[in-house]
Design a protein that fits this description.
binds magnesium ion, Helix Hairpins, binds adenosine-5'-triphosphate, elongated
């Protein structure tokens, strides 16, 4: 027989091994299996288990066997009543002995003696450790209890650790999910300004795949530039301002990995150590390109409009005051020419103001259209005539529509504006004159219309942008000719309000061709609709002549 000293030695050895298992972060089941095995061995028992309350709550029904020693898991349900007895302080020792006997009978195991101890976290029981002996006459003693108590304490620690760890992992996963799902770009950087976290929005914003961004300096990946073209992140990193600010923010331009230009606003939440040393930061990056473009457009708007309004007013005023000089005696010819210029400039002002009103109407919620059948060939002829009257003789105009071109369903006045805009552009951006062609054809249930010139053309990178408000291509001709950059913006809006589309095909130096679509007045009906209409027509005919249908059917 071992004496008590030997037991304590063995106990210490077992506890050490359990401790190692806990610190090696083995999973909870492995650790608890060790605990129950050593507990059984140290008191010379034969069977044992550890039961835990399923969190939360400590009701007896929630007590489940977590691990066992020499008891097959299929027997676990048979222990339900015994477990409930353990958990209930009102159950007497005799009643427990009876429950043990019943359980032993049911599972056909020699469970003769039982000792149980609660696993405690503070005062709170989180489960039980239970050891059984097969021998009839060898009851458990106080000494056995104190030996097992140390294991119970270890098991409680292991369970607590595992639960805390699981909670921490879940919290981490939850945070990761929040960061990942965030509509804003989120980037975490470490104390050396290197990226450690980079969410999906950040990937979309910067064009950098996360695998490549992580580990790189943030100034390389984000690289916010100011108006002067300096990389603020390199020259004036907001996280290096002294004294440190709680939430420094920078705004500027970035070039994405695939070469796009975006404007971003980046707000940082830095953390500092006890001695003020920088530990890292979370950056919240927002795409403010739309807002920035609007601001730029606003600025352009003011300068373009003031220029565009001032020029004709200055000309009108100049001519008017010259003509009415009391000392001058102008001949009829001069007066007529002067008045013609005044009229022309007044027309230009009128168009510009009309365009501006349309722009504000558009922004306020769309254009109201007065729809009806519109004959494109004659409308095009009138628009061409008006433009040709003011264009130089270097232009030749051609109109080409099929002779049976059906009418479109449109607002005639607006479509005249569209054609006028496109034709006046064709003239304006063809400094050497050339042929300007207008024409169209039918494609399915829509009309396709084009206006083509042989002018300077439009570079691919400008082809989308010319439809933006106030956008004018920055070239010599653009600077020499007048324009607010509104014509195509309004043209596109009008076409789209009709349910059509507009696009441009062009090669720089080789002219431009604008193509748009409009719905036909009598669209071809889809088969089902056509069949219905045919049936309705038949019904109307039947009502008028009750015999006709019967006769036809008969
Ligand atoms: P506005 O029409 O308001 O008087 P605008 O002609 O400059 O001014 P848009 O008609 O919107 O404005 O055209 C925008 C820009 O697209 C023009 O400034 C020009 O650079 C370019 N553009 C338009 N049409 C042509 C064309 N046919 N050929 C070449 N460039 C064109
Ligand atoms: Mg124009």
């Amino acid at each position: 027989m071992l004496d008590l000293g030997d037991y304590q030695l063995r106990q210490r050895d077992y506890l050490l091994r359990i401790n190692q298992a806990i610190t090696a972060q083995l999973d909870l089941e492995t650790v608890l299996s060790l605990v129950v095995r050593y507990a059984v061995e140290i008191v010379a028992g034969n069977y044992g288990f550890i039961a835990l309350y399923e969190a939360p709550g400590e009701s007896a029904e929630r007590l489940r066997i977590a691990v066992s020693y020499q008891i097959p898991p299929e027997h676990y349900p048979a222990f339900t009543a015994l477990l409930a007895g353990l958990a209930d302080p009102r159950v007497t020792r005799e009643q427990q002995a009876r429950l043990l006997w019943q359980t032993a009978e049911e599972v056909r195991l020699p469970l003769r003696q039982m000792i149980s101890l609660p696993l405690l976290i503070g005062q709170r029981p989180i489960g039980f450790i239970v050891v059984f002996r097969a021998a009839v006459n060898v009851a458990f003693t106080m000494a056995d209890e104190s030996l097992i108590a140390a294991f119970a304490a270890q098991a409680a620690v292991a369970v607590q650790n595992a639960r805390l760890y699981r909670a921490a992992v879940q919290e981490q996963e939850r945070l990761n999910a929040i960061i990942e799902q965030s509509a804003d770009g989120v980037m975490i950087i470490d104390h050396r300004w290197r990226i450690t976290t980079f969410n999906r929005a950040m990937e979309q914003l910067t064009g950098w795949p996360r695998e490549e961004a992580i580990g790189r300096p943030c100034a390389e990946v984000l690289g916010i530039h100011n108006e002067q073209g300096f990389n603020i992140c390199l020259t004036a990193c907001p996280l290096q301002r002294r004294p440190p600010e709680p939430n420094p923010t920078v705004e500027g331009r970035i070039t994405t990995r695939d070469g796009r230009e975006r404007y971003v606003s980046s707000r940082y939440s830095p953390t500092y150590g006890p001695h003020g040393e920088f530990l890292g930061a979370i950056a919240n990056v927002r795409d403010i390109t739309t807002r920035k473009r609007e601001e730029q457009q606003q600025a352009t708007f003011i300068s373009v409009i003031s220029h565009e309004l001032k020029t004709p007013v200055a000309i009108i005023k100049g001519y008017a005051s010259t003509l009415r000089r009391p000392d001058a005696n102008w001949d009829q010819q001069t007066i007529r020419e002067g008045l013609a210029v005044i009229e022309e400039e007044a027309d230009r002002l009128d168009t510009l103001i009309g365009n501006l009103l349309d722009v504000s109407r558009l922004q306020a919620g769309g254009l109201a259209l007065q729809l009806g059948p519109v004959d494109l060939p004659s409308l095009a002829a009138r628009a061409v005539q008006a433009i040709a009257a003011t264009a130089s003789e270097r232009f030749e105009f051609q109109i080409r529509f099929p002779s049976n071109m059906p009418p479109v369903h449109a607002d005639e006045e607006r479509i005249r504006m569209v054609l006028t805009n496109l034709l006046s552009n064709a003239v304006k951006y063809s400094p050497n004159g050339g042929v300007i062609r207008v024409g169209g054809w039918v494609d399915g249930d829509q009309a396709v219309v084009y206006v083509a010139d042989q002018g300077i053309g439009i570079a691919p990178e400008d082809q989308q942008r010319i439809f933006e408000r106030f956008y004018r291509v920055d070239n010599t001709l653009g600077r020499q000719t007048q324009g607010a950059g509104l014509g195509l913006y309004l043209t596109k809006a009008i076409i789209e309000a009709h349910g059509g589309q507009i696009r441009v095909e062009s090669q720089p130096g080789r002219g431009a061709r604008f193509i748009f679509t409009l719905p036909l007045e009598h669209r071809q009906l889809p088969v089902a609709e056509a069949a219905n209409t045919a049936a309705q027509a038949q019904m109307v005919a039947d009502q008028q002549d009750p015999h006709a249908s019967a006769a036809a059917n008969g």
